[in-house]
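Encode chain A's predicted structure.
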Amino acid sequence: MRQSKLFTKTRKEAPKDEVAKNAELLIRAGYIHKEMAGVYSYLPLGLRVLNKICNIIREEMNVVGGQELVLTALQDKNIWEKTGRWSDVVVDNWFKTKLKNDTELGLGFTHEEELTNLMRDHIHSFRDLPVYVYQIQTKFRNEARAKSGIMRGREFLMKDLYSFSKDAKALDEFYQLMKDSYMKIFSRVGIGEKTYRTLAPGGSFSKISDEFQTVTGSGEDCIHICEKCRFAINDDYIKLQPTCPQCGNKELKKETSVEVGNIFPLGTKYSEAFGLQYVDESGLKQPIFMGSYGIGIGRLMGTIVEVLADAKGIVWPESVAPFKVHLISLAQGGGDAKNAADALYKKLTDKGVEVLYDERELRAGEKFADSDLLGLPFRVVISDKTVKAGKVEFKRRTEEKSELISEEELFKKVG
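Encoded structure for chain A:
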């Protein structure tokens, strides 16, 4: 992609009404556009990042046997009344609307009820189990506070997987598998070292749950970390469980964090409400045991920015960066440097390397400032100096110093 053709431009200043670092940087760098508090559009650069995060999540969900579907955002009031969660007293963040005939509907904030109801047409026998289905879909939550950029949105993309198992043992086996799967996801997107599986209350879903909390000063949660076994306890649960439940360690470190994922063992709560049963090997009807597993994808993207950004701008891990290489031409007009940059852009692109090519007529300082703000993993500079040396100037976004290397060495580093 030639940067002169890229639909977006960087900004020197963030919007005055933004207080979250992730929103400030993503808006300044042209990844997102703020429509209103808690509602953001994803521009081409931002969508590339979002899609890469989604693909990593898809890969890990598919590995454990998940099958992707998409459910409706419009929700039937009658279905949600079966579990009592239509009530604004029970769930205070509904977005509700009406059809022209006054039929009341809601915009889905999660999908336990709808999917349980749907499964009554698809699960009848023990031979139909287990079932693991997931979706990546827009959710709507009428948040009272939306000041954390894309980490707390009123309209946001979410991955939610639901498991349907024949008994508590089968549910627990899959639940344990998902704990590991989630940690793989957070490691692959670059925040594994800062993310902890955290014991927490289950809210309206279950008595307890497992949250995945990433340590960052901009978080809204508080966790107590066991540094011996990398387990944590949510502050809301610490009085009930003052020591590490895994190793018994009493020395827990208090940290501010943001929740990037959660999983809930639902048991038979929803299957019993909807009469979702199966016939076992003995011909007896049995309730189905369920689990729910969510990741807010926009929140995860914002957390990556919060955790890894530095004073100069965003720092994307290779796995989710919109482009791997930021190629910068310092040639003014035509000449050997311009030809060399054009040629290198073609070579890298032909090799399948994702390249953002800054061929704009701007001063070097402006280009370097934009490059730091955009946060691509590798910066490659072509100038009259590098052409004379028969080299290119190479620098990682996470390092201060650059080095002169040959094109052959460059292909080894980024190929």
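The longest strand covers residues 253-267.
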